[in-house]
Structures are given as structure tokens and as C-alpha cells.
Amino acid sequence: MLAASKRYPELVTMLCPPPFGLRADLLVKKILAENYIGRPHHVRLQSFTGNYLDPDAPAHWRQKIEISGLNTLTLGIYVEVLQRWIGDITGVFARGKIIDPIREGYEVIVPDLLTVLCSFENGAEGVLEFSGINALTSGDRLEIYGSAGALAYDFTSDVLQAGKTGDRALHLVDIPQELEGEWRVEEDFLAAVKSKGRVRPHPNFEDGLRYMRVVQAVADSRGRNEWVAIKRSM
Predict the structure, then answer these.
(1) Element containing residue 211 per DSSP (H, E)
(2) What confidence tier does 204 reach under pLDDT thresholds 50, 70, 90?
(3) Domain residue limits at 149
(4) Is the pLDDT of residue 120 over 60?
(5) Residue 9 resides in a domain
(6) How many helices (H) and strands (E) does the chain have?
(7) CA distances from 180 to 79, 164, 190 (A)
(8) Is pTM, for the whole model, over 0.85?
(9) 193 within domain boundaries
(10) Total structural domains in the chain?
């Protein structure tokens, strides 16, 4: 699809963006660009649900590799968000585990839980945790720790918090109306088509390739039990 889009640059192309983090997307980018938390050095992401706790339930479509491919749980969705906010992931080491390998006669080979250690192009290190077998979870959360402060985003409630070194705790960050994002994928795509090439919407196929490289690297790392570097060239 990327090659085809380059052969016909006059046509508008766009991938469907993840809904997570859209509300504060512009504000998070602004906070990081203004170095409010300094240089990011530690990233923590947790995406936990209890969707797969019932061992007698049939396999969910996300547990079927013939449907979901190499993607595991919400890995691909959050990789796209992370790379949009923090920059490219340059290497990964991943471990996964299947808790209930047989569901109504179907053999599950997609992990029920996944842990990814990763490095970013800007030098930050990350720990990304995904699970479908965690009871009593409180939602999905991202924490970014920098040389001058920290930022936390609750994807479930769309609440943004931040703080500087020396503060007693993180404080709530109000999202200005002019920076507040919303789901308008169809509207954005149609506007790009009507612009006759003046507007190029995102994510595009280059963005998709960037996060699929990470998804592939995570699968390779799990399979080989080793660190996998991610090539940057297009």
C-alpha cells in the first residue's frame, strides 16, 4: 500500500488513527516540545484488561492470528501513540505468555500478556505492559519521566497530569478548548480530498510502516528471545 501510494501521489491516502489520546494529543505534544519535563528518559505504559480471564470463553478475534496478524492486545495502537508523542522506537526485547492455550478447540498462539522493553530514538528507555488477564484493573495509563519533571496520561478517562521537579505531586492539566482533539477521521479525510493535495492527513502509510516495524520486531524478539534493533530507513 505504501508503494502504491507513492506511485499515485495525487491521490489522498490515510490510515484510521487510534482513538486513544486524541483529546489531549496537541497539548501533550506542546508540553513535550516546550521541554516542560526536560529530556524524557523513562517511559511506562500499562494497558490492562480482564477480557480473557474466563478460560471457558471462546477465543476473541484479537486472539486469532489469522485475523489480527502479529499484533498482540493493544500493542500496535499504543506504539502509534508513543511514536507520535515521543519519537521512533529503535529496539525492543519482548516476552509474552499464553494462559489458556485452548479455547473451545481453538489453539491460541497470541499471548494473553506481553511485556516489552524498548529504546527510543531520543535516548529514552521504556517499559510497555499489556494484558488481557488482569482482574480489577483501573484503565490504561502512560507515564513519562524527564530530567525536569513528569507527565501522566490516563487514556481511560482522558485526564492529563504533569509536574516539575520539586512539586509535591502531579497536578491536573486543563486542556484548552483550542487544543482539544476529537474523533473526526471521516471529516478529516473528506477535507483532504476536497483540498486537492493541499492537505495531507495523518496517519499515512509511512506512519503505518513505522509502527508495523515495531510490531514485527516485538514478534521477532519473542520468537528468538533476544534484543531486536529496528531499522529506520524507509
Answers:
(1) helix 205-224
(2) confident
(3) 19-181+207-223
(4) yes
(5) no
(6) 6, 11
(7) 21, 23, 21
(8) yes
(9) no
(10) 1
